[in-house]
């Protein structure tokens, strides 16, 4: 049996710049330098953070312990900050200590601006570095455009925005997804490492055309923006979400290789998608069908083949009655498998 690997606390600084190590009383024993920039010299977790997405009466330390025991993500808001909550995982350690590894999620751009973060503030493999580079590039481009006329500046900013982003939802567009997907393929081909495996999920909305036909395209746009919000909430900060068509979405899920986990994620997304959206006194209802494939199913990974299989799994979900999840090669016929 392999013994436990001991990592000195001071090594966490470079490996996990957003970590928080607390003792059983919530006292902060170690804090990543990036996180320390944000919380100042607080010495206790309760002084620095408040629990979010929890009942009003919930207390932070018991909530963090519950998250460690259950494996749920924890959401912590920085006190006196307008940033979206940080989110992350909690690991219980001996002697009642807990290790939290936090991330920015959708608040990364705001955090970069608010705390003047640079690439040195992120772990080397953190996808937030790519966002940082894009953010810094945007700043440089805007500085250059300021030397020209306002019309030229607006034209270039519009072109920049359209290059990788869907203007309606703010998600990646097809071109942006292809860039992220190709990077994942190259990493997987270069290394035989479970950390380079991934899953791809495709969501297609059911009954979306009915919303457009009955209530107009403005209602349809409101639904699409809500779906984008759902996908951001249900996925991790390093997942890549793209709108690739009218009502079609692709999600790249790094390191997700568990079939039960992808079924549970798909079920959560579908349940959230089915919540009605009010627009201009109209109640808009849609559902969603999901197809997915795991990179671990392939010895030689070809992008066109994997995406074709995701598409096949999606249409298997639609043939099965919609509002369900199908994994390629596992359950493309029959009833939707039960999710614990």
Automatic annotation (TrEMBL):
Domain of life: Bacteria
The protein's name: GGDEF domain-containing protein
GO molecular function, one term: catalytic activity
Span of domain GGDEF: 196-330
Pfam families hit by this protein: GGDEF
